[in-house]
Every structure is written in C-alpha cells, then in structure tokens.
Design goal:
With 242 residues, the chain is α+β, with helices and mostly antiparallel strands. It has a single domain, classed as Pseudouridine synthase. The protein contains 5 helices and 12 strands. The strands form 2 sheets. Strands 1, 2, 3, 4, 5, 6, 9, 10, 11 and 12 form a 10-stranded mixed β-sheet that branches. It has a two-stranded antiparallel sheet with strand order 7-8. The radius of gyration is 18 Å and the shape is globular.
Length: 242
C-alpha cells in the first residue's frame, strides 16, 4: 500500500474504467460513516474520493472487519444500474474464510436470518466448499490440538452479516468474528498469534458491465494479516493462494 506524508494511505485499485472502480479494502476500514462506529475517523468513500479527485458511490458494502474487493460507481447513473444488478442477483461473489473445526467438503446453508435493523426474518442461502483443513499442536480447552478449515463461501443472497451468521449457525464460526464468533477462539488467536483481524476475505466479484456488456472478473490478493495466518495454520508451501 502506497502512502504520502500528508494524506491517508492510498487504497489499492484492482480495476478501473470510466464509470467503475474496485479497490482491495483493508480489514478494519469502514466503507462510510456510521453512527454505530463513532470511533472511526477514516472511511473508504472519503479516501477514494480524495485519491481520485471525484465523487464515488459504493454499490455494495463489506463489513468493517472484512477485507477484499469493494466496487464503486463513478456516476450516479452507473450506481443505479449496478444497484439494480445486485438486487436482481446478477453479481457473483466469492469469499475465503478461516473457520473453527473441520468443515464438510461442501454444504448449502439455507437458514433465514433476522434483519438487525427491521427485526424481519429474510431468506438467506450460502454455499461453501472446503479448500483445506489443518490440525495444529495448539491446546484449546480439553483438546491438545486445534482444528481449522479454509473455506470458499458463495452467498446467493445478500443479507447483513450473512456469512458470519451462517458459519456460526453450523458451529464453524469465522476466526476473529465478534459478536457472532467464538470469543474463546478469538482470545486464543490474540494471545498466541497476536491476531485480532476477522479472517474473512472478499476474494472475487464478477458481473456484466451494464454499458459494454463485457463480463468483468475482479480478484483481490490476500492482505498481509490473512496471508500470515494462512502460513501459520496451513504452512507457507501448502497454502492454496490462488
């Protein structure tokens, strides 16, 4: 990540056209100002606006603690077109996460979630497949070892905190997740690895450009802390970094 002495660090740009731009959002950065995160002073919208010297419109959102592909429109009309495509399910998203325990080879989680803002339950579906499993000699509770899985997650709906809630629902919470995850595991990672990042990475975003009709695929490389934990848990040589 580049930086200048007088401004916020520049956001890594993964894709840019006349009307769209995608960044690799760092873990811990809010997309925009929020009343529930009054401690934050920097936001992706403002940083990217200043970086590009023009207004930007986030066409979707990522949790503060999630890193990876984040797409912005550069015009109001493109924002409307992309919002429509998201609502119609025309956007394919995939994530990678490190979770507690050994997950099944693959599974579809079809479990309705309560909207935190409205209280209404909404249909929510997530498909995942296990990329790799590991068992390390790190005692936890009554166990002399600890087990973890790297999973690829593909949501077919876009509910708030869907991936976090779904993985917690099947008792394989994402490491570093609060409040849906396992606080004892989070404490273990903080004490043993000095790690407090949520290990959820928005890996890829695919969509059809509304104007050119070109199929666009944008992939975000892992950020340093996620990559460090891949090495620590799965081994540098064996880590499926693709």
């Amino acid at each position: 990540m580049n930086s200048s002495p007088d401004t916020s660090p520049l956001l890594p740009i993964l894709y840019q056209s006349a009307d769209l731009v995608a960044i690799n959002k760092p873990h811990g950065l809010l997309v925009h100002r929020s009343p529930i995160a009054s401690d934050a002073s920097e936001f992706a919208v403002q940083i990217l606006r200043d970086q590009l010297g023009q207004r930007v419109y986030p066409v979707h959102r990522l949790d503060r603690k999630t890193g990876g592909v984040l797409l912005f429109a550069l015009t109001d009309s493109m924002n409307s077109l992309m919002q429509q495509q998201f609502m119609e399910g025309g956007i394919d998203k995939s994530y990678l996460a490190i979770v507690r325990g050994f997950t099944p080879d693959e599974q579809t989680i079809d479990y309705a979630l309560r909207n935190d803002e409205t209280g209404v339950f909404q249909d929510a579906v997530t498909y995942f497949k296990t990329v790799q499993r590991t068992e390390i000699p790190l005692p936890f509770g009554k166990h002399v070892t600890s087990r973890y899985s790297l999973v690829e997650l593909t949501p077919t709906t876009g509910r708030m905190h869907q991936l976090r809630k779904h993985m917690a629902h099947i008792l394989h919470p994402i490491i570093g997740d609060r409040p849906h995850g396992c606080n004892k595991q989070n404490k273990l990672f903080k004490e043993h690895f000095e790690m407090s990042t949520m290990l959820l990475h928005a890996r890829q975003l695919e969509f059809t450009h509304p104007v050119t009709e070109e199929r666009i695929s944008i992939t975000a490389p892992f950020q340093a802390e996620f990559e460090r934990m891949l090495g620590a848990l799965f081994g540098v040589d064996d880590s499926p970094i693709y």
